[in-house]
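dude i think i finally got it to work??
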Amino acid sequence: MIYTQDDVLAGLAAASAAGTSPRDFQKNITAAKAAGSFQSGWLATGTPGPGSAAPAYTAGSGYACSVATPGAMLYTNGSVQNWLAMVSGNAALRGTIYIYDRLWSCSGMGFAAGTYAVTTPGALPARITDGGVGCEIWIEQFVAAGAASGTAVVNYLDQGGAAGVGTIAAVVSAPLIGQIQRVPLATGDTGVSGIVSVVTSATWTSGSFGVTIMKKIAKIPVATIGVEQICDWAATCLPRLPSDMCLQVVWMPEVVTATLIQGSYAVIDK
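look at this
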């Protein structure tokens, strides 16, 4: 466990000696739809390489993600308890880099207006032991779509297993590949434990999207172009990290331009 700053320093030294920390990431992020919108790094090239395609919502299994899922950032399970002690990042543009734990994902939705019921969606990965408190729902664009806009209603199970409904009132027209849009949860809900279905009101001329559940681990503000921003253990608030995490990056830019984002992260086991 960690009780003092000396414990943190000892943990960093041990991780460095073992060669398990710090570790680097680098992603070529495609141009965003708009300033302040979000781009997933899951399909982006770099280190790690592009993530594996999410199974179709009718697949019936394979939706949960782990450290073994191709595209996950390097992560070593702790023998005692893992903690995030440092993250850093920089980019050629101003914006914010987020580190998320990718928990669950499906694809293949959005060709036509209608209801897309997920086949036997299953539970979140076993590392989520609190019913999904703090977990977020995102619409993730796996194939760029044509010009159409409408509502997207996500029927989900909340942190207690009760039915919940989240609505994007106006899905962005002609969404780009890699674009993600967060689905607001119903009033009073603090998390999500599963996806039931998605109902769209408009038909795209092309493209498809899916639903991804993620949990935010850290964020790195890039305020100065090309200058590494370091967030130490005090800035990260030392979040506990469970085993088998599927870590990925998300980028929120200040301007609409493709960019390279890169950084590192230090995990201690104590």
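Residues 143 and 269 are 39 Å apart (CA to CA).
im so relieved honestly
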